[in-house]
């Protein structure tokens, strides 16, 4: 039997055979370590009944592992040059569908309908291109897809921000945006040495388990996220001052202070000390009905 794709030797062989030159602009850093891949798979919850969706299969390192462990794999790849390569490297696996498309443009809901059974658990798994990690993840979690989890390799700092707790340096509006839709956890840090070529940043594996419903009830989601952003606008400023700047055309400082008092939230606190529930109280309190 052939060697697995995700070894330095086989990867080099494939790159050479196809004279493949990495495109930095597409965030191409391929995984060349089977142990890391098995580790990722073990955190996904994937088994032989599962559907898997991958973003950016590259030359198929992770795709191969998904094909082995899941029932079916759908993989989105933007780089045309990789299509013939994937056809070759994944020829032994009949349960992989590669879609040549920018994930940001893709109708994932439709692809799920077409490729998976209605009762099949679905997991998104990817070693994401780092230049568009946040847009990709926000698209996927906001669309309310019938997906159980997302397990992704991303830049360490971004993973920490998405999984942060209140009163930490990483906690901010991105934390709230992600945790409104999912339970987020950093499951493991990954050294640069397992990638080819090696990226400039450290990486982590982040697991997002999709929530059945949001953890708080907000009257207006867009307004809720605006209030969260405003509260973090200048991290060193108090909540009262950040909100005063944000609402400067409607309320003065006195009115903001009074409103905060009514809501039972101390205006001298900083945004980073508020949890999701308190942001919901804040947003619902300031929301104009
Ligand atoms: N999964 C492979 C691995 O782990 O070795 C490759 C991971 S590499 C970090 C990111 C992959 O995403 C590349 O193959 C790149 O061409 C692809 N990619 C970049 N932008 C994309 C986009 N907008 N939509 C789909 N794929 C994209």
UniProtKB/TrEMBL annotation:
Catalysed reactions, semicolon-separated: adenosine(1518)/adenosine(1519) in 16S rRNA + 4 S-adenosyl-L-methionine = N(6)-dimethyladenosine(1518)/N(6)-dimethyladenosine(1519) in 16S rRNA + 4 S-adenosyl-L-homocysteine + 4 H(+)
Family indicated by similarity: Belongs to the class I-like SAM-binding methyltransferase superfamily. rRNA adenine N(6)-methyltransferase family. RsmA subfamily.
Entry protein name: Ribosomal RNA small subunit methyltransferase A
Domain of life: Bacteria
Positions of S-adenosyl-L-methionine binding: 29, 31, 56, 77, 102, 127
Pfam family, one: RrnaAD
NCBIfam families: ksgA
InterPro entries per UniProt: KsgA/Erm, rRNA_Ade_diMease-like_C, rRNA_Ade_Mease_Trfase_CS, rRNA_Ade_methylase_Trfase_N, rRNA_adenine_dimethylase, SAM-dependent_MTases_sf
Keywords attached to this entry: Cytoplasm, Methyltransferase, RNA-binding, rRNA processing, S-adenosyl-L-methionine, Transferase
GO molecular function list: 16S rRNA (adenine(1518)-N(6)/adenine(1519)-N(6))-dimethyltransferase activity
Compartment(s) of residence: Cytoplasm
Annotated Ribosomal RNA adenine methylase transferase N-terminal domain residues: 36-212
Name of the gene encoding the protein in the UniProt record: rsmA
Primary role: Specifically dimethylates two adjacent adenosines (A1518 and A1519) in the loop of a conserved hairpin near the 3'-end of 16S rRNA in the 30S particle. May play a critical role in biogenesis of 30S subunits.
UniProt-listed Enzyme Commission number(s): 2.1.1.182
């Amino acid at each position: 039997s052939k060697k697995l794709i995700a070894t330095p030797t086989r990867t080099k062989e494939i790159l050479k055979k196809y004279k493949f030159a990495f495109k930095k602009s597409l965030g191409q850093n391929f995984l060349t370590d089977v142990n890391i891949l098995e580790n990722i798979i073990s955190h996904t919850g994937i088994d032989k009944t599962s559907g898997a969706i991958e973003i950016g299969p590259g030359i198929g390192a992770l795709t191969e592992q998904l094909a082995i462990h899941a029932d079916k794999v759908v993989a989105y790849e933007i780089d045309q040059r990789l299509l013939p390569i994937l056809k070759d490297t994944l020829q032994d696996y009949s349960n992989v569908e590669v879609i040549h498309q920018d994930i940001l443009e893709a109708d994932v809901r439709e692809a799920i309908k077409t490729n998976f059974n209605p009762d099949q658990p679905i997991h998104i798994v990817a070693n994401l291109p780092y230049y568009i990690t946040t847009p990709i993840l926000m698209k996927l979690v906001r669309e309310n897809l019938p997906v159980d989890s997302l397990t992704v390799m991303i830049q360490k700092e971004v993973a920490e921000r998405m999984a942060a707790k209140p009163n930490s340096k990483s906690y901010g509006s991105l934390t709230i945006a992600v945790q409104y839709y999912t339970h987020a956890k950093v499951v493991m840090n990954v050294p640069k040495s397992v990638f080819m070529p090696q990226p400039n940043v450290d990486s982590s594996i982040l697991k997002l388990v999709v929530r059945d419903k949001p953890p708080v009830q907000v009257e207006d989601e867009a307004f809720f996220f605006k209030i969260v952003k405003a509260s973090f606008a200048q991290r060193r400023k108090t909540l009262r001052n950040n909100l005063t700047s944000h609402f400067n055309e409607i309320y003065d400082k006195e009115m903001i202070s009074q409103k905060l008092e009514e809501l039972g939230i101390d205006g001298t606190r900083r945004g980073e000390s508020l949890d999701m529930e308190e942001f919901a109280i804040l947003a619902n309190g300031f929301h104009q009905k």
